[in-house]
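Homework help board

Subject: predicted structure for assignment chain

Our instructor gave us this sequence and asked us to write out the predicted structure in token form, then describe one feature. I got the tokens but I'm not sure how to describe them. Can anyone check?
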Amino acid sequence: MKIVKEFKDFISRGNVMDLAVAVVMGASFTAIINSLVADLITPLLSLLTGSYDFSQLYFTIGEGDFAAKFSYGSFIAAVINFLVISLVIFIMVKLVNKITRRKIAEDAEEAPKKVCPYCVEEIPAAAIRCPRCTSHLNKPEQ
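My token output:
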């Protein structure tokens, strides 16, 4: 029965649930990214390459039933797919970061301020250490 209690404690920890949610969200996000690349970006790339299919490129070494087939075209297609997906994710992360930074800046502007007595810089009123000169400040009165 001890193992059941330990398992219950393990599974109910917040970070395990967060991880489970992240995996599910990641799986659905993967479907969105794959669709974006396959349905929108790859057709645009095919205009540039003249609809050339890299996956059909290969060479063989040897003859007969034991010949080794090297499908280097599939590798090239996988690398191109990886680069396109990476570019799309990079652009999406940059956009999310830009929106997040803007929201953080707006929140910081609205937060009450005080002046650090050591470096005379404006800092958040709740700060107990100046982020600019690193001086310890008195705890804010509550």
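Reply (TA_rk): Your tokens look well-formed. For the description, you could write something like this. The chain has three domains: 1-52, 54-110, 113-142. That's the kind of observation they're looking for.
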